[in-house]
Amino acid sequence: MAIKEGRTQERCTGMILPVSDAIQILSGKWKLPILISLQFGNKRFSEIAKNIPKITDRMLSKELRELEMNQLIKRTVYDTVPVTVEYSMTEYGESLDPVILELAKWGRQHRKRIMSKDRSAAKY
Description:
The chain has six helices and two strands; from the N terminus they run ααααββαα. By secondary structure, it is mainly alpha-helical.
């Protein structure tokens, strides 16, 4: 098997750990959808829940805590009656914007590719 130019064993090994770290932080069904929701502006808990069909309040709460722990989002509590809590992307979280845009681009292309294969396979 030919190895593409510039792709060495050392570079391979050097990529595995950081990619594994990124996947661990962003893994699961809900973290990326939550981040995408917050890319479109600050939101309260219920607004995020409305953006993401089928997520339970318990799961949303858990995922928000983990994203906050990893400094990707910020939770702001306002001194109002009743208390208002708002979630927003941190500057560090916004550094994921190009990654999310590329994932969306790849996902659209993949969906188009697979759907066209499904249609052509259905003809036989």
